[in-house]
Amino acid sequence: MQPEVPPWVPDDVVTLAVPAFIVLVILEMLVVRLFRRGAYDAKDSAASLLMGFGSTIAGVLTGGLYVVSAFWVYDNHRVFDIGWTWWGLLLCFLAEDFAYYVFHRISHERRIWWASHVVHHSSQHYNLSTALRQTWTGNLALSFITKLPLFWLGFPPAMVFFFTGVSLVYQFWIHTETIGRMGPLEWVLNTPSHHRVHHATNPRYLDANYAGVLIIWDRIFNTFVPETEEEKPRYGIVANLGTFNPLRIALHEWIAIARDLRDAQKPWHWVGYLFGPPGWTPDGSRDTSQSLKAKWKADQVAAE
Amino acid sequence: MTPEETQFVAVQLVSIGGVAILVALAWLLGFRGGARIAGEAQVRDLAQAAQLAPPKAVAVDVDGRAALAEIDSDTVFLVKAMGDRFTTRVFKRRSVAGVKMYRPKGRGIGARLRFSDAGFDDVRLEFAEREAPAFVERLRRGARIN
Q1: For residue A42, what are the domain limits?
Q2: DSSP string over B52-78
Q3: Residues in chain A within 8 Å Cβ distance of B80
Q4: Quick one: B6 and B66 in the same domain?
Q5: Do A242 and B23 lie within an 8 Å CB cutoff?
Q6: One digit per residue, pLDDT tens: chain B, 146 residues?
């Protein structure tokens, strides 16, 4: 049994924030129109918003997997009993944010999780509607496994779910080109500038800035890359999509994986196609983030 | 319905209403896409930017919505307008799942291309001429492109 949840904790932080999301998207559209900073496209936004809507439905249908796993670990295997104290909340915030960093990093570095997460990166725009372009298949791919150690440590599930919601709401507003740099906050927090880098496909920016709320994890684990004035981010994925169809957006990478598995020549190729980096092939015939970065670095050296 | 179910349905209705309002507002504010391929030179520039060999032939949709370039006997380069942006992709011949010709009203000929990449919708190329460019026709027949 988890400890009683304090009355000030909302059932679902994200649901509460939906009206604010709508108002802020409207405000950003007006700012983009008036000051020509950033960009919108009606079809692209429609796709992003429908992905967001679909993800809430998918969450209801598949979220039970996460909830059942969380309570199973907490009820049967927890090491400590952590209550809703100030230090418990602080530790949980930090632990959840670190678990998010790990989840986010493997979501980029391992194809089986990238297949879900690619959805969020599949827009060539970077605005508040992009924030809502969310996966439908994350729970089915067990993307929550990086959160399970928190329940094992003894953080109550409701506390972890609360901070996951806070993190999601926090990450909404950083998907914008209308805000530049934020001074000293850039050292500690994930900001629009840091997250623009994360969404960029320029080789120098690939696989960087995985943070949720605190950018410190990227600084500690050497995945931090600052936005530079000389290279404006190009948003999207290395091979951008040619569709606004939500079903195709949600499933295209899963279909590509299925085809690769079907055509695999040897059993160990399955391991590479599922758990290798996106772009992995047995013969190295496709680009990965690492190979693209290596080419870019070689070009830089050659140019000097 | 339980109060929780009622609340869930209410939230979904607000969300879908919000989606409709935001898309309508984006359209009203003029964010209506409209990227168009200006011509063969632009396709060649994009192919060069993608570090491809110079195309041997280029076919541009009469409205500039898409273009296809022949890179070599087994490779085509596709440019597709996506809202206010372009998407480009290199396809091997085996990834072209089908090419169907049709006669569009008031145009010469159209080609509908289907790709095995699930991240791509079908692409339509329409031409003023009565015949499609030769490499598109060869692609339809499943033959080597050149």
Answers
A1: 13-220
A2: PPPPSEEEE-TTSSEEEEEEETTEEEE
A3: 242
A4: no
A5: no
A6: 888 889 888 888 888 999 999 999 999 999 998 899 999 999 999 999 998 999 999 999 999 999 999 999 899 999 999 999 999 999 998 889 999 999 999 889 999 999 999 999 999 999 999 999 999 998 888 755 55
Q: Is residue A106 part of a domain?
A: yes
Find chain A residues with C-beta within 8 A of B27's C-beta.
42
Do A172 and A17 meet the contact criterion of CB atoms below 8 Å apart?
yes
Sign of CA dihedral A218, A87, A84, A150: positive
Number of folded domains that form chain B: 2
Of B16, B21, B83, the CB nearest to A53: B16
Residues B73 and B118 in one domain: yes
pLDDT over threshold 70, residue A162? yes
Same domain, B74 and B122: yes
Per-residue model confidence (pLDDT) at position A1:
74
Mean pLDDT of all residues in chain A?
96
In a domain, A149, yes or no: yes
Q: What's residue B145's pLDDT? A: 56
User: Which of B15, B31, B82 is opposite residue A56, by nearest beta carbon?
Assistant: B15
Same domain, B89 and B138: yes
CB A252 within 8 A of CB B118: yes
By Cβ distance, the residue of A53, A252, A253 closest to B19 is: A53
Say what the ipTM of the complex is. Answer: 0.92
Domain of residue B109 covers 40-142
- Taking one residue from A and the other from B, the number of pairs with CB-CB distance under 8 angstroms is 122
Does position A146 have pLDDT exceeding 70, yes or no? yes
Q: Which residues between 19 and 48 in chain B have a beta carbon less than 8 angstroms from any beta carbon of chain A?
A: 19, 21-23, 25-27, 29-33
Interchain contact, A29 vs B21, CB within 8 Å: no
Residues B60 and B105 reside in one and the same domain: yes
Same domain, B59 and B11: no
Q: Of the candidates A175, A71, A75, which has an alpha carbon nearest to the alpha carbon of residue A130?
A: A175
Give me A197's structure tokens: 């880098």
- CB-CB under 8 Å, B120 with A124: no
> Which residues on chain B are in Cβ contact (under 8 Å) with A239?
89, 119
In a domain, A51, yes or no: yes
In angstroms, rounded to a whole number, what is the distance separating the alpha carbons of residues A165 and A32? 28
Number of domains in chain A: 1
Give the largest CA-CA distance in chain A.
63
Same-domain pairing of B55 and B97 = yes
- Give per-residue pLDDT as tens, A239-257: 999 999 999 999 999 999 9
pTM of this prediction?
A: 0.94
B19 → closest Cβ in A41, A50, A57:
A50
